[in-house]
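dude i think i finally got it to work??
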Amino acid sequence: MNPIFADLPTTVFEVMSALARETGAVNLGQGFPDDPGPADVRAKAAEAVVEGWNQYPPMMGLPELRRAIVQHYAHWQGLVLDADTEVMVTSGATEALAGALMALIEPGDEVVLFEPMYDAYLPLVRRAGGVPRFVTLTPPHFRLTEEALAAAFSPRTKVVLLNNPLNPAATVFPDEDLERLAAFCRRHDAVAVCDEVWEHVVFDGRRHRPLMAFPGMRERTVKIGSAGKIFSLTGWKVGFVMAAPHLMRGLAKAHQFLTFTTPPNLQAAVAYGLAKDESYYEGMRVDFARARDRFAQGLRSLGFSVLPSAGTYFLNLDIAPLGESDDVAFCERLVRQHGVAAIPVSAFYVDQPVRTIVRFCFAKRDDTLDRALDRLAGLAPGRAA
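look at this
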């Protein structure tokens, strides 16, 4: 067995979800909404599977979906893409990430990773033969600094893997940070693989700006999106990859020997969904922001210290004011004694983990959030845990 995967422990997401099921806890750990997703998009998928084509679709994705992706990103982010040579459909964003890393990395190449980071990044980089170089981001703002980037980049840097908006920090990087990173990519001739699955889940009037749009980055960026996040249909696993033709040729070959293709009925439904008018996207953000505010206000009213959440489904709690210094032990007590499952943010670090931040998923119905708040009242500052 290859030790990179064989020696991996069970993920904290699985552990906490299992504990939630075992104890009957309110599960605010794993990041998925408890809403079924937009009915019209789901109806299109059902219609397509009954009346449409169910054999192999084109390896690069249905032409109608690739055209819809081009039109969608032209409208929302001002990107000019070619549907035939610069767009590919994958079976989820994680497959897109795996394929990109396999295509771009040769053994010994250095890959810059930003902690906290999605747990799939590091094993995929190592399995591709990459050598990780970590940039540690710290709360409450998780900024990209000149000093940290200078320490991570080197003449052997080949790939930079960026998640923006950032899970679990719920941060949307400001333009000055992205320009700083773009300058390092240009200087070191590095390719940026940008996991931008949360690009539509941003709040308070923000608009996502892709790294691909920055000067000098169009030819050196692989942009990855996710229909699962855009439409709150996390089980669908339909991803988008966008890159210049010279990069896409290698990315397509990696995809060809991974999943090869993606269910055509889901592709047809996503093509329909991407063409929905702005009211859907604006309404989705308003609904999630309202849930965020409801949960954040409830936590603050109980005396907890809540970190800012500019995007994603997540809200973070600073447990240091509670006298806590071990987020893993805290989350285990939280689920067993108080009936609420959360995720310790230290699980997203490899080097120098932050151990006083706990992540909650607020993409839930009001009654789910209210039940969690009722249970968390027993943990409010000044009361015993």
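DSSP finds 14 helices and 13 strands in the chain.
im so relieved honestly
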